[in-house]
Specification:
The protein is of the alpha+beta class. The protein has a domain at about 20-55 and about 90-165: NADH Oxidase (3-Layer(aba) Sandwich). Helix content is about 40%, strand content about 15%. It is built from six helices and four strands, in the order ααβααβαβαβ. It has helices spanning about 10-15, 30-40, 60-70, 75-85, 100-125, 140-145, and strands at about 50-60, 90-95, 130-135, 155-165. Strands 1-2-4-3 form a four-stranded antiparallel sheet, sandwiched between helices. The longest helix has 24 residues, at about 100-125.
Length: about 180
């Protein structure tokens, strides 16, 4: 299918980029993120568990949040981590219910990842950049305390968000032919 024949959805999927830095000063409003999430949560979810919840951290709260997160690192890395955490214009913590049954855990993680992809595409359509971050601090017990995350929950990631002036360059994909085969007995 040529680029001219692609559906608008297919084009958004191909155009979407991870916006990791160089955010501009435009404020990311909680109301917009909630609006995007209203559609993003229609992701596939096994047994309709809808295992996610969200904590929005606006720009005004990021400096204090960044200090707490940086404190989970060794002292020599804290200044760098604090600066890094202050880059986005907003942060969305995505929290997932963690069932004990491995099959349900996998299903919950798959549903949450699908929801994040939906959010990413919806945000891109509105020219809001984001990137799903899974830095070491999300695995620290202190992070659960900082965000008041329950014992049966997992911080799946911190979504760094912000508006941007320059679209990141497109990185090539491995050709599908290298990753696809037809099963034969």
């Amino acid at each position: 299918m040529s680029q001219k024949e692609r559906t608008p959805l297919a084009q958004i999927i191909r155009d979407r980029r991870a916006v990791k830095k160089h955010y501009n000063d435009k404020i990311v409003e909680a109301s917009l993120v909630k609006e995007l999430l209203e559609d993003a949560i229609w992701a596939p979810t096994h047994a309709m568990r809808q295992p996610w919840r969200f904590i929005f951290i606006p720009k005004t709260e990021i400096p204090e949040f960044a200090k707490k997160v940086a404190a989970t690192y060794p002292e020599e890395k804290q200044e760098d981590r604090e600066r890094y955490m202050n880059e986005p214009s907003a942060i969305l913590a995505v929290i997932m219910e963690e069932p004990i049954v491995p099959k349900q855990w996998d299903e919950n993680y798959g549903a949450t990842a699908s929801m994040i992809q939906n959010l990413w595409l919806l945000a891109w359509e509105r020219e809001l950049g984001m990137v799903w971050k899974t830095n070491p601090h999300i695995y620290q017990p202190e992070m659960k305390e900082i965000l008041d995350v329950g014992e049966n929950e997992k911080v799946v990631g911190l979504i760094h968000m912000g508006y941007f002036d320059r679209k990141p360059i497109r990185k090539p994909r491995i050709p599908l032919e290298d990753k696809f085969e037809v099963y034969h007995q």
